[in-house]
Amino acid sequence: MRLKEFVLLLAISFLISAGAVGQDKKPDDEVIRVDTQLVDVPFAVTNSAGAPLKGLKASNFIVYEDGKKQEIVDFATTTAPFEVALVLDTSGSARNDLLLIQRAARDFISSLRPGDRVAVIAFRTERTNNQAFATSEILTNLTDDRTRLSQAIDNVKTSNGTPYYDSMLQVAEKVFAQRPAGEFRGRRAMVALTDGVDSSSVADFKLVKESLNQVGLVSFFIQVDTQEFFEESLLGDCQSAIRFSSAQIRRYYQTINSKGKKMEKAVNFCQLGDFERLAISKRLYDIADEEMNDLAKGSGGKVFQVGDLSEARSAFRSVADEIGTKYSLGYYPSNEKKDGTYRTIKVETKGLPAGSVVRAREGYTAPRN
């Protein structure tokens, strides 16, 4: 056999062997979860007295999705760092207490641990064509540079409206637009200082809830009670009173209509009598309570109520303590369907003292094809 023929046969034999090896490869050797999303579940554990339990391990927990046990493939202890989006509401009565807000925000950041990263979002007033409107602004993206964060707090301004929903949408779509680095998986939070009564957002609550749920944040709220201040300035002459925005009036009537009630709708604030103004105000604050508790409970977070901004510093310290006691786990769902359905999550403990309580993310919406 000539040399050229020998080389050719050798090459053909090699290709056939390579193909056979590829065919013999077992499914177990292949990557089978390339497009399956790891579900992150942040949670906290307390004993019967309400004190946080630390030093726990993955073996102390069982996670279920829609009642089916899942395999925990990722686990982070309370010492792992967090990424936090800090939202500061500087509208309404808060305009007179800007220094209190800035001081409380600085204390909160200094209470966090080395390695924790923070982004700052606040409201401000913009003017276009002699018209003023409130907008939400990211003053700094996620960073652990305390000097940069202090400068961002210095740049917090006041606003003539409350784009509360828009600010939370920014948190989900911009601050946490990128997938987290490994050490921050399941360890992202939003902390909002606000009364929760939106007046000027383009976004609505439904979109905000879906977006935050998709990102998997823990939501904490420091809820400032501004209702008395607002209602004192709401009554009397419509030209000098604090006014509802058209969005707030629409939101009120939408909730009334959803309950099957029919009533004549006012199209602007001056058409409202004092009784109706108070009814609208009460309903708007009730909506704020419902929405905050919905977001907090569903994400494993918490609402801290304060009477006024002078109590915000203490509440911020409590939030920092909460963040410092969070665990997180991750699992690949056994239900791999991408059908857009909502899946419930339940975390149970094992080998812990009786009376131990878990507060965890309650569910997520599966992606769609």
Oligomer category: single chain
Order of helices and strands: HEEEEEHEEHHEHEHHHEHEEEE
* Strand percent estimate: 15-25%
Mean pLDDT, as a whole number? Answer: 85
Number of strands: 14
CATH topology of the domain at 83-242 and 293-324: Rossmann fold
Structure overview:
By secondary structure, the chain is an alpha/beta fold. The protein has helices at residues 3-24, 98-111, 146-154, 164-175, 205-215, 227-232, 246-258, 274-299, 312-323; strands spanning 39-46, 61-65, 68-70, 72-76, 83-88, 117-128, 131-143, 188-194, 218-224, 302-306, 326-331, 342-349, 357-360, 363-365. Among the domains are: 43-73 and 341-365, no CATH class; 83-242 and 293-324, von Willebrand factor, type A domain (Rossmann fold, 3-Layer(aba) Sandwich), CATH 3.40.50.410. Helices cover 34% and strands 25% of the residues. The protein has a 6-stranded mixed β-sheet, with helices on both faces. The radius of gyration is 26 Å and the shape is globular. The N and C termini lie far apart (57 Å).
